[in-house]
Amino acid sequence: MAHITQDSVVTAYFEISWESAHAAHVERYLAREVSFVRDILPLGLKSRMRGLGPGDSVELALDPSEIPGFKPGKVLDMPIARFKAPFIHNRKLKPRLGRFYPQHLIVDVPGTRPDSDAPFRVVDTDKTGFKADLNHPMAGRDVRVKATVMDIRPPSGKTGTLRRWSDILFNGPGMQAQLPDTPTDFFSEEPFARADESDDARFYTRPRPVAHLDSQAMENLTATYAALLTNATDLLDLMAGHDSHLPEGLSPRSVTGLGMNAQDMAANPALTASVVHDLNQDPELPFADASFDAILCTVSVEYLIHPFEVFEAAARTLRPGGIFVLSFSNRWFEPKVIHVWSELHEFERMGLVSQYFSHSGRFGDVRTISERGWPRPGDSQDRHFPHQAESDPVYVVWARLEQ
Description:
This protein is an alpha/beta fold. Helix content is 16%, strand content 29%. The chain contains 8 helices and 17 strands. This is Methyltransferase type 11. One of its GO terms (biological process) is methylation.
């Protein structure tokens, strides 16, 4: 069996874990073609990985020098005139508390470039201006990293993929965390409006047995479900379709689907029962209290126009300690997605769903997972291949009903 040497080329699976004031977070990233000659890895990680073989892993706390430091001088008071507000959904964007925006939306600020997509965060607002935090979203965090060796190959002339590892592994993480003391202002300016406000029942009249994720992303999502779900439980697949993405070998007591199309759910082999119900017409769930041990909502939360009421209903129908798991990616049916969803950075969307949990006041132990970097399978049925080289990212947010 091969082992890592000083000039190996490695596929490594990184898990970066950290906590914010309201949730625990894990970022998973598959890094391919990592060159032990050319690439830079976190301090101490490269030396501890040498000698490992496929399947071996190493875990350590990142040295503070490896994490962007927090600099008070990067928190700046801005007059509102400095914000170059674009028009989105026929309205002028405003800087909102807790939200992230690309730095190219602020002008005449030392250290920023007019073409920079690096994020800044609004950490205070008043009638005349706002306070912009230009620090990295992960600044000052305590971070652990676990690296698992997936594959080892002989040396090659390739340049490697992690020459600037932090720019890749820290590109997005941190933006799912709300400010320590203040909820993010996600809910101003008609956040739950949509481009197509027509009756959803008409939109879903015909079956839509389409794959919302590529096959690798579905495999990654199923693996996450396998880690969260247990046997002999009653599951609710919320906004169900033709596939519940349940892992093989899972033996639930029952799986109930609630969705918009009876034919889609009839084709779903995991379901033991199904109910046609439009949550955007009636957000109450048609089930008795404490009916389920787990509720899953797969690539659908972005269509809810009454999320607070749905989360309240989920809490009512879960048993104490039950789990509510919501997953999504970065594509959707554009006419039916809520406005706020399409306005957010991908990682901010995990913060939005986390805030749905907080708003209900019924859930605890909120956690997020992001999964990126996998190669996209060469599937002839995938209209995004070969134009997209990477598999769809997977984002998961879950919490447990407090007992």
